[in-house]
Amino acid sequence: MSEIFRFEDVKKLYPVQKKQLLDVIFRRKIPDVRALEHVNLSLDEGKILAVVGESGSGKSTMGKIVATIETISGGKLFFEGKEVNPGNIREVRRNVSMVFQNPSTSINPRMRIKELVSEPLGKFDEKAVRDVLNSVGLDYDDSKDKQPREFSGGQVQRIAIARALIKDPKLLVLDEPTSALDESIQAQMLNLLISLQKKNKLTYIFITHNIGVAKYISDEIIVIYAGEIVEYGDTRKIIETPKHPYTQLLINSIPSFKSKTVASPVGDVPSLINPPEGCRFHSRCPFVMEICKGREPPYIDVNGVKVKCWLYGENGN
């Protein structure tokens, strides 16, 4: 199995404001939001990778970087073994598509469905549009001349998926594609995505705040907190025996029929303009030690899972 995508020490910074004339004259430095830092990971073809974390953790930023919607501030990106650069970015974009949480942000509500779906091709191809609409469970003849407002939320998401698939990509980035849907429609959508992934031999990066959904759909999981990956590895291993305290709290926050109580991280996510020293989770961690407050933990391999936590380092187990 070959590697399709790789991050090498990737970071993404956003200035908190645009630089003004006086900033230039007085050489004032504009502070940055450190949305992602120290991201190292690789993804093999045909796998489904879930990216899990709270709102504002950097999940969507990571997805946009993969789809080349955002550029990186440092580090390197590789697609099929080649570093992504201005010379090959069009080829990368031809092979990577993205589906957004709210389709209304990515499609023109005034366009007809056949125009929306074929737009990424740069031309209208009736056979291609017919085939891809049928693949997501929509009838071409019934839907081709309608506008998005004539469809339900679940149907519009199917249209957005068809639009992403029309150029026959190798990698699909799915940013919270089911969170805006009713529970029953979510299940239908997840089953559709799994079916399409197997049929088209696709690779998915599935971004979600719901670790229960990640458990259902993914082969591997990245748990991201305050812009950094804190745990990364096989989905079954992480769900059954989570190592990082943040991952443990995320899993304990999933409601179940066995218990009427749920646990979740307390406190606020730290500022990404001025992150705390040491482990970024230490102010919310139930197992915090003195070393956590002053030194950033390394990644430790624990039974094949990468964990960024001092509990498994030189002062831990």
Describe the structure.
The structure is a single chain. The mean pLDDT is 88. The chain is built from twelve helices and twelve strands. 31% of the residues lie in helices and 24% in strands. The strands form two sheets. The protein has an eight-stranded mixed beta sheet with strand order 6-7-8-3-9-10-12-11, sandwiched between helices. A four-stranded antiparallel beta sheet has the order 2-1-4-5, with helices on one face. The chain is of the alpha/beta class. 36% of the residues are buried. Helix 5 (126-135) packs across helix 7. It has a single domain (3-312), classed as Rossmann fold (3-Layer(aba) Sandwich).
The total tally of domains equals 1
In the sheet with the most strands, the strands line up as 6-7-8-3-9-10-12-11
CATH architecture: 3-Layer(aba) Sandwich
- What proportion of the residues form beta strands (DSSP E)? 15-25%
Q: Uncertain segments of ≥5 residues (pLDDT<50)?
A: none
> Number of DSSP strands?
12
Please work out how many helical segments DSSP would assign. 12
Overall pLDDT: 88
Observed structural traits:
8-stranded mixed β-sheet, Rossmann fold, 4-stranded antiparallel β-sheet, 317 residues, alpha/beta, single chain, globular
